[in-house]
Specification:
By secondary structure, this protein is mostly beta strands. It has 7 helices and 34 strands.
Length: 718
Amino acid sequence: MKPYIVIPFILLILPLQVLAQSTQDQILPEVVVTPPKVKPHALSVEGKTAAVNNVVIDRDIIENSMAKNLTELLVEQGIAAEAAPTDYDENVVLLRGFATEHLNSEVNGTLLILIDGRRSGVASARQIALQNVERIEIIRGAEMYKYAMSSPGGIINIITKRGGSGAFAGSVQFGGGSYDAWKAGASIGGQVNNFDYSIGYTHSAVGGDYKDGNGKKVYSTKTDGTDNVFVNLGYTVDGNHRIGLDTYYYDVDRAYRPAYIDDEGDPIPPGYTNRKSQIYSVNYEGKSGDKRFSWYAGVNFSKDAYENYSGQKYPREQEVETRQARAELTYHGANFDVSGGLDFVKYDIENSGASNSYYYANTDWPIVLHPTSSSRIFGVYLVGTLRFMNDRLNITGGLRHENSSAKDKAVGDEDWNSYSYFQGLSRDQFPDKRSFNHLSPSLGISYLPVEWLKLRADFTQAWRAPTGRQLFASRRTEGYGAGGDPRLVPELTNAYEVGFDFAADHANLSATYFFDDIKNYIYLNYYTNPSNTSATGGRVMRNAEKRYQAGIEILTSVNLAGLMGYEAFALRPFVNLTHMTKREEILKRGAPYLEGRWWPIVRMPDTVMNYGIAFTHYGWNFNANLNFSYSGLRVPGRANATPTGDYHDQEFGKINVANLSLTKRLWQFPDKSNIDLKININNLFDKVYSYRDRVGTGANDTYPHQGRNYYATLMYNF
């Protein structure tokens, strides 16, 4: 049996072996199950009242990570992602088979990324830097209804830093490494009287092309520059009312990409992209003097844009503007908590189309962006928790109603009459706007038979209406690669999960089984006419009749040094595992040929695992983290397309990449400031791999990630 199977299996058993010596006076903590001082390198179980597997990635994990952005951090924590090797491509994150959108518009995805509980408008997790992130929460169950009901795999909520209790603190860092890569940044924060602030800026660049695990240079992989700015300002009145102003800015200047073969087998020349994300938010938080009532209100605006150059006369461009408002009122009672609120979000999409689009073909001058579609969502919700038996028995529940609408802003550009799928129907036979409504319930229960063990079960219904792009998109003007279908109906997901959480002095273990029954899943499909199976009908948006996703999640870590009585240091093996026991879908049961065949869902690996060992010595101020990320077999399909032929010929994966991080305090000053050195060795064993497709030169093959590479960062903290 291979080491990456044996080692994690042993680690899974260790928490159960310490059960007998860890049952006295153990209480499940509210947030993190790892003991003080020990830096947790496994996902932490949140809340003894939660009926679902909500998890937290805290600041200790982030600081000891090798990751440079959100995608890399999630991969390190055992979450699947289609991580790109350079800043050119967007990154897709997958939780339990649900995915963020692959074309930089969060409205089309089934997995939502929030920043401080607000929609970011940013679909690519690569465009979220980690410098000013305090922690990351993965929210499921009734709590999801506070933000949406379209993300049943979980909502990724990024909590940013606020100014601390002191008047002034911060850090300065500078680092460099392989292939002329370098990064410099600074952050400051604090609180002066009623005013708190947190401000950060980083700039990075990659000056040279990298080499893969075989030592072969991968050309056109540098990035001219990346800038990230974060500002969080707040003013508090009477200690109970805070008015906040937040802004987030991310700018990528000329991130290059090698030549490759696309999904249709066509050679794509080298190219580069410019990307820019901007988010602005004004918010107000308050609470009553007795703290029984708390409330929130906020509005935010974001703009996410990119332009791609790839051997074309003109670039392909897209811009998404997002406007959002949200309000919530919460009551905290002795035996129950209840929250109610409403939210509104609108997405407006503008697009240039591809270089061979309808507009480019009819002009000889560069095309400006033109409106293509809009999507609007209005939601109201009520969620709460009833607590019995001194919080040992807890019932959570919620209701959320959404009204969703979409509008075609480029009527007449569709070429549906060229698709055999539409059977000659023309544009005037379809609507140019649609509206949908739905009410979803959630119900969960958690029970602590003893203080160190929690049992839980949950049912949550998710619902997602088709978006403007999915209903009305045109290949000619949007470069989407597929036509929309105005006849689409909303997705409906019944999500079930059961599990337990165990907490001891030096060990924790969380295990969950989840099952998702999905009706009318919306995705891109290679349509084949059953009456003429040798002819392709193009790629179109369709509803899949049924889709099943099920699996197990296991999160565990053990402090071996603590078990043996040592307090000066910690030695902590950890495992975060997701294994899909079911991942299949069918377009239409009983239909002929490919339409009636069960297929594996694309993109999601059968197994994703993060495991390794972390060492911390408190007296030496030294940390080491050896981290393995394993990604199992998956069927490629960046456009969520159904595989054709024998899909086993397309499978790739079984990727096991090791990274090593070492952090040492070089100097401790009397004023408590210090200088730290951090060294990262990534892809320790020089693997040749890609998370997106097979590496090679054939159709659908892609270029690999970096081979072994090194990076050192010097940090001055004050």
